[in-house]
Specification:
The structure holds two protein chains of two kinds.
Chain A: E1 4-6, E2 10-12, E3 18-24, E4 34-39, E5 45-52, E6 57-60, E7 69-73, E8 78-83, E9 92-99, E10 108-111, E11 115-119
Parallel strand pairs in A: 2-11
Antiparallel strand pairs in A: 1-3, 3-8, 4-5, 4-9, 5-6, 7-8, 9-10, 9-11
Chain B: E1 9-12, E2 18-23, E3 34-39, E4 46-49, E5 63-68, E6 71-76, E7 85-93, E8 98-101, E9 105-109
Parallel strand pairs in B: 1-9
Antiparallel strand pairs in B: 2-6, 3-4, 3-7, 5-6, 7-8, 7-9
Classes of the chains: A mainly beta, B mainly beta.
């Protein structure tokens, strides 16, 4: 069964850096877009950005451009979400998900279990 | 904040039908396919509907989707207690060159 497995929960202080991961057990990693979705406590889903590991083409939501970095390592079928300086407001659950079709506008059809990031002094 | 507007909550008795609206604009729903996601409490979202009205394998036909102009609708018929969840619409926004989700709707089975 194809799965996306995310790294474990993190507790960080404001100003610290962080990189969370998402590993794809399937064999379509370099031929599928993979992205990240934020869900703040008690709030809705927010589309953050996506990457095409085959050529590293990356698209960001304007709301997250410059705030995070999305990357991928196709040699190990892993995608990453990175912060250089965390804020308390980055506290949220972060989901990775793969896109079902060849276009960035196609829907997320396979989701990871989520990584809870808590930022607190 | 989201640019796709959904009602905060809908409710109905078991066996009844509910509909959830998703209102957008020409830059998103008006010119792109709409998807719907179900998020059960404490779990990751799951794709329910894609390309406005198509169901992935394994999704029962109690779930239906439609689109007209700049709005989309999710229907859930034969409501079951297991359908209690948050539901989100999603689409691409051509102006933002990014995906967007709706504000989310909580479905309660009375």
């Amino acid at each position: 069964e194809v799965q996306l497995v995310q790294s474990g929960a993190e507790v960080k202080k404001p100003g610290e850096s962080l990189k969370i991961s998402c590993k794809d057990s399937g064999n379509r990693f370099t031929r599928s877009w993979i992205g990240w979705v934020r869900q703040m406590p008690g709030k809705g889903l927010e589309w953050m950005g996506i990457i095409y590991p085959g050529d590293s083409d990356t698209r960001y939501s304007p709301s997250f451009q410059g705030q995070v970095t999305i990357s991928a390592d196709k040699s190990i079928s892993a995608a990453y979400l990175q912060w250089n300086s965390l804020k308390v407001s980055d506290t949220a659950m972060y989901y990775c998900a793969t896109i079902s079709g060849p276009y960035p506008g196609d829907p997320f059809n396979l989701w990871g279990q989520g990584t809870l990031v808590t930022v607190s002094s | 904040q989201s640019i796709l507007t959904q009602p905060p909550s809908v409710s109905a008795a078991p066996g009844q039908k509910v509909t959830i609206s998703c209102s957008g604009s020409t830059s998103n729903i008006g010119n792109n396919h709409v998807s719907w996601f179900q998020q059960l409490p404490g779990t990751a979202p799951k794709l329910l509907i894609y390309e406005n009205s198509e169901r992935p394998s394994g999704i029962p036909d109690r779930f239906s989707g439609s689109k007209s102009g700049t709005s989309a609708t999710l229907g859930i018929s034969g409501l079951q207690t297991g359908d209690e969840a948050d539901y989100y619409c999603g689409t691409w926004d051509s102006s933002l060159s990014a995906g967007v989700f709706g504000t989310g709707t909580k479905v309660t089975v009375l």
